[in-house]
Amino acid sequence: MAEAIEKNPLAYDTFHDFFIRRLKAEARPIHNNKNNILSPADGRLSQHGFLDEDTLLQAKGKPYSVSALLAHDQILAHNFYGGAYGLIYLAPHNYHRVHMPLAGNLLKMIYVPGKLYSVSPTTAENIDGLFAKNERVIIIFETSIGKMAVILVGAMIVGSISTIWAGKITPPRKQRSVTHIDYEEQNIRLSAGQELGYFSLGSTVIVLFQKNTIEWNSGLENTEIQMGQNLGHTTTNSNKTTR
Fold first, then answer.
1. To which H or E segment does residue 141 belong?
2. Which residues are catalytically annotated?
3. pLDDT for 125-140, tens place per residue?
4. What are the residues facing 163 on neighbouring strands?
5. Cα–Cα distance between 145 and 240 in angstroms, integer?
């Protein structure tokens, strides 16, 4: 609680307010320069690496396709073939706001209804295609190195997923269907490290980058990380003009 802006747990009106509590700025320093890839959240970096064409891992020996993760949008998925991916598991005790790994312009958001399986490491090791089955919000940005996806995956007991530009995303259950919202004309730009949304309980964030655009730092496998931490860097041949 010493990290929170409001340190007294009894000062929060509801458990939900307590759960999504904001932290002091100095509690999560942003390790930012124009080439750094920042951790979007606190949690465990349970998987990271590079896609084998269209395949990434949710756990050791558990591959799944980027197309399935991206709601079977083949055109969108093709952007990330051979690219980089990172998977951050947020346990219930973690800070639950999600931030930008890299500055970018918001292009689109896709809401995908689905299951609410637990996303714990044990579940990820036992349910095939877990993250392509669970409810999720897929957010696509245009950055200086091309397209970046930030995917917020729902889970058991997750009450909702919210973003700073659209508020609460999760619709009533009987109204749920895959929903595409285009933001290209709205000129919404977020800086590196800026908050983009939050979970109303623990879950998972997945980030995707295009091929040959970033390199991961060494020594990150299955480690505890914090929002704003430097996880890698853009490559010298990947600098593109942001739209």
1. strand 136-143
2. 42, 99, 203
3. 888 899 899 999 999 9
4. 167, 197
5. 5
